[in-house]
Each structure stands twice: as structure tokens, then as C-alpha cells.
């Protein structure tokens, strides 16, 4: 099957403008007769559902949480990018486009990324109009801060809870449409299959998670807005409920999966503390604005820190290695996430880790507190003592990052104003996802994927504060246009009865899998298998991969999958609230996904962004791309169990010169 990305012709800066002026439209009367299913109610899903309903379409929204307000978008902390150039520091749509392509290590589409950059400013205007309380400067203008991979300040934020505030803005628009009857909400419902009729997506099978009842729902189009699959690693910064099931069911019904091996490891996470943990906690990348990352220069100091014979404040300034500032002077602590993560791993692997496991580095705010304190003292016209300067500086930091500092202290018991935070990289975001074209349509007509559920905008590494940007861009400003190209040809299609044989077959298949899981009655819990899978993935397909390890991982996952289907124990029944049954279905999908991720990583004989193959690195330990052989999107077609066919979408760069990334 030939992959057609449907990128419009013409100059890059004119593609989206021309597209919007020429795309087929659906008139208001016909929109009222068209039904759209939106699966997921995070930023992408809520914004898409609210926008499409406002346009006149009939919309059904499904989320497995008890409220759309609990979607995982709420957990995003640091900010959202937009090329408004409020700081007058040289930003522009082109610079945001360039930074995103470069940050993704030249493995993203030019057309999609430029469109994202173009609409970024509109997102901020939309959110302000929705009541999002962005931070503001003294004069009332919206405030910006820096994030990794850029040399400008373009990140808009609402303290350390930007995702929550953006989601509440989208949620208010969604609930307005619910109140008007344009949107029907199905909370505590999980999509377990997609229904294909005449090669088009025509609906879904959903399970009411409270009663266990299976339901059939028709739609002229289905939008997957279900987030990423980082929980394949078990431990990640994702909420425990985050899963790949909706996307994976779509994949097994014909939707190609793009770049599954591209996983983002976030450099500023609270380190793992033991086997008791079910998830990890992120410390926002915004903390790298003012925090300095370091480890001791001497291994004996590192050993003293690990055994608590010394504390971080006992290490003299000259004995500290601010390794990001040393290695990457142009960007310092604000290098992209993949670069910062690998650098932390390298220092810890070399024996300079600072916690009892040796898997942590310091994020230190002492210099920022001193700098802000002196500025405040000057503003107040006082000759402040050292203690007063610290007091004033802490107050400024508290205003900018206070909720993050409070969260760290609640989790670790350490006051980060007085002692540096300990951080270590952790799985955070997945750049891979369902393959989509410029319209956000998958390889199944009528099925779309938005936000983190698709692969399209970030290449091999996502820049910080770009996830919220993509989710809202797709929902507010892209899908309302692009879906018309498909639905304009569906206005004569009447609602298909859910008694259609395709609906019956899909429901029976779902029921059969549920019955199988419940009837295995083995001896091992679902979490047992999930943890084993996560360890395989982290050890052999995590921050670093190699051919031998990936081959081993594939065999180990296949064996684990076979054991799962023979020996998992799922208590309870199908006709009740049964969280273990929900988890079992999700882990079954993770086992298959994990195998494909390892196959994709093994097939890609290069290092790029978050995909770091140890065989392909420079003498300085940086990622070494192979643009001649691997400048393409890996799009995998599901054939049968453990059997996929690779399709390649060539990436063409006509506006940016491909170069080896350098942040020095």
C-alpha cells in the first residue's frame, strides 16, 4: 500500500492557508445529520468535540474517567509553546518550525510542523478567551519562559499547572455543548474495538466500566484522541490508567502504526525509590529555566552522597560538575530532553550518581534564589544581608514554581528551597503513534487520530511544551477543517443500524476476549506481567538500545505473552466494575505493542532523538543519524500475531537543510 501524506502543493508558508480556502465544506443543514465519535476527552478530544459540536455536527464523546476533567492532559505542568514573540527576542513562526524540526532530529514532516507553528498563536488567543489564567507580567501582558531546545522565550504557562488550566478551558467549551444537547458524554466507558463497514470506520464497541455492558455506537467518523502508550514501560510519568488499547484496536483493524520505537525520556523526574511504585512523578521542564544540574566531580564525593556521609550543600562549588553547561555551552541546562536525559545517564553510569541507587543527579536552585534575591533587594532599595537575600529569592521562586516545589517536598520529604532536588530520566511521552496524513486521517477512511495518539508532529524527540500545543492545534484548528474533506462525501450516508453484522461481529469478538481473560484462572496477577514487560522494555528498549538486546527483548516478550495467556488470573466477573479486567485487556495490548516497538527499534539502524542505538553514536556520545537510509517514517501494517509489514513514508526537506544536531 502506497502511503499518501496528502501534503498540499505550493510554498511551505502557503500550504495551510491555501488548503483552508479550497477544502470541501459541509453546509450547516447537512452537519446536523452527521455523527462523529470522539474517543478521549483530554485536550485534543475536548477541544475537537467542542469545536465540531459548535459547527453543528452531532458528537458523542467517550472517556474512561468519571469526568472529562480527569483526562491525563491535566497532569502537564510547564507550559504551551506559541510563536507570538512577546519577548521581542527574535521568535517567529519559522523559528518555532525550525526548532521543532531540529528538536525532533529531522524525523518529522515539514508540512505538519509548519502548520502547527502557524496556528500556535491562535491557540493562546482561544485559551485566553476561554478564561485560562496564564501568568502575566507586571504590566498585564502574558508572561513567557524558556524550555529546552530553544534560545527564545515562547512558553506560556499557568504556574506549574498549565495542563489543568488548559483542560478546564476546553472542558468548559465541551460542557456548554453538552448542555445544548450537541454533545452526548459517555463517561466510564472504554472503547474496545472499532467497527469497519465497507472499508470505512463506522463506529465503536464500548464497555460501560460500571455495569460491564457492551455497547454499540455508530458514527460517520471516529476520532481517536487517546494519548500515548508510555505505560508499556510500567513505570512512567503517565497516569496508571493511560493505555494504548483504543489505538491498538484501530491498528489491528487496518490503521498503520507510525514510528512506535520513538519514546521520549524526560530528564527531570523524581527518581525511582523502590519496587512498591506504580508510577513516577514528573518535575516540570520549566524548572530547568533557573535550576542548574550537576553531579560531583569526584567519585569519592558521589560515594559519600550515596551513603549520606555528605549532603549536597557540603560539596564545594569547585567540586561540582555542571555537566550540561560544560558540554553544551550554547544551550546549557536547556538542551532538548533526549540530550539532557542521555547526559544524566552517562554521568550516573560513570559512577557519579548521587542517591542510594546511584541513579540521580541534582537540580539546584541556590544560584537562582541568590540572583532573584539580589534583584528584589535592588528593587526595594535595601542593603540586604545574605540571609535577607535568600529570603527574598525564595519568595520569588515560590511565586514562579511554588506548587512544583511543594509537590517535591510532599513526595520526598526534602525541602528543595534548602537542598537541591534529585532527578533522573523517566519515560514520559511517545512520539510514535497511529500513522495519519495531513488531514489527520489514518489509513482507515473515516478514522482520525489527534494529539499524542498520532505520530505526526514531533519526529524522534518532542520539545518541551509542544504536547499541549499539538493537542489543542489538532482539536481547535485542524480537524474542524480537515474532516470536511471526508464528510462532504458522506452526507448521503444514513445512520447505519447497530444491528449490522459488522457491529455484531465486533461485539462478539470483544466478548470472546473478555471471557477468555476471565476463564484462564492462572496464578499470576496482571501487574506481575506488566512489571516484567516494563523491565524488559526499560532495560532493552529504553534510553539506550542495541541489536543484541532488542533481539533478546523480542523473544522475551513473545514468551511473556504466551505465559500471560496461559497463567494470568483475573478475578471478578464481566458484568460489574472490574478494574483488574480493564488492566488485563490493556496489558494484553501492551505485550503486542512492546514487541512491535522492539522490532521497529531493531530495524532502524541509526540513532536519532529519543531512539539511541549504542552502535550508532559519535566519539562524543551523541546520536548519529543515517539520513541516506533512514530519513523516513516507519509505518507498520498489522498482518497477524507477531507479524507486521513495514511501509516507508519518505521525509523530504525542502525548506530546512538537514544537519547534525548541535547544541554546543
Automatic annotation (TrEMBL):
All residue ranges annotated as the Fumarate reductase/succinate dehydrogenase flavoprotein-like C-terminal domain in the record? 530-663
* Enzyme Commission number(s): 1.3.5.1
Q: Where does the signal peptide begin and end? A: none
Cellular component, GO, one term: plasma membrane
Q: Where in the cell does this protein reside?
A: Cell membrane
Which Gene Ontology molecular function entries are recorded, alphabetically? electron transfer activity; flavin adenine dinucleotide binding; succinate dehydrogenase (quinone) activity
Give the GO biological process terms: anaerobic respiration
Q: Which reaction does it catalyse?
A: a quinone + succinate = fumarate + a quinol
Q: What is its main location?
A: membrane
Taking every annotated instance into account, which residue ranges of this chain make up the domain FAD-dependent oxidoreductase 2 FAD-binding? 36-468
Q: What cofactor does this protein call for?
A: FAD
SUPFAM superfamilies reported in the protein's UniProt record: FAD/NAD(P)-binding domain, Succinate dehydrogenase/fumarate reductase flavoprotein C-terminal domain, Succinate dehydrogenase/fumarate reductase flavoprotein, catalytic domain
Q: Which domain of life is it from?
A: Bacteria
Give the residues annotated as active site: 337 (proton acceptor)
Q: Which UniProt keywords apply?
A: Cell membrane, Electron transport, FAD, Flavoprotein, Membrane, Oxidoreductase, Transport
Q: What class of enzyme is it?
A: oxidoreductase
The protein's topology relative to the membrane is: Peripheral membrane protein
The record's comment on protein family reads: Belongs to the FAD-dependent oxidoreductase 2 family. FRD/SDH subfamily.
- Designated name of the protein: succinate dehydrogenase
According to its UniProt entry, this protein's organism is Solitalea longa
Query: What lineage does the source organism belong to?
Result: Bacteria, Pseudomonadati, Bacteroidota, Sphingobacteriia, Sphingobacteriales
